[in-house]
Amino acid sequence: MMADELDLVVERTLDAPRDLVWKAWTSPEHISKWWAPRPYQTPEVEIELVPGGIFRTRMTGPDGFDSTGTGCILAVDEGRRIVWTSALGPGWRPNDGFEADCGGFPFTAIVTFEDAPGDKTLYRALAMHRNGADRETHAKMGFSEGWGTCADQLGEVAKSLGAGR
């Protein structure tokens, strides 16, 4: 899977085994701890890990920010890959909610998890856009910093799940 000029990518080697990173990414109680860059929070998460399933998050911030994003799970390869999009809602219904959220553009995310040496995980999040303008808007919104911070927070949460293992 190669990124092209319409994509944005964040990649990290996380200091936790793949099964724990997967658990942190797929459990609402754990997603709420890392999904939004701190001090922003994610008080609501709903995820149904089946094709056509809902993926909904609500993020809030100390500056009054309050945004809900609803998408659709497209594919799940247990422990290895999650594909979801903001262009569709649950049950494959076209989603018009992205106009108010996510900067007004749809995107598809492909998130992969691979074993890395030292019981670590190679984590990659690819955001695919329909055109260059959407990609540029997402980049200017702080994609690299925001998604990068969240990836680091995901690694912290996953590592904490292994404490006392």
UniProtKB/TrEMBL annotation:
Residues 15-157 form the Activator of Hsp90 ATPase homologue 1/2-like C-terminal domain. It comes from the Bacteria. CDD domains: SRPBCC_CalC_Aha1-like_3. InterPro entries: ASHA1/2-like_C (IPR013538), START-like_dom_sf (IPR023393). Belongs to the AHA1 family. This is Polyketide cyclase. It comes from Allosphingosinicella ginsenosidimutans.
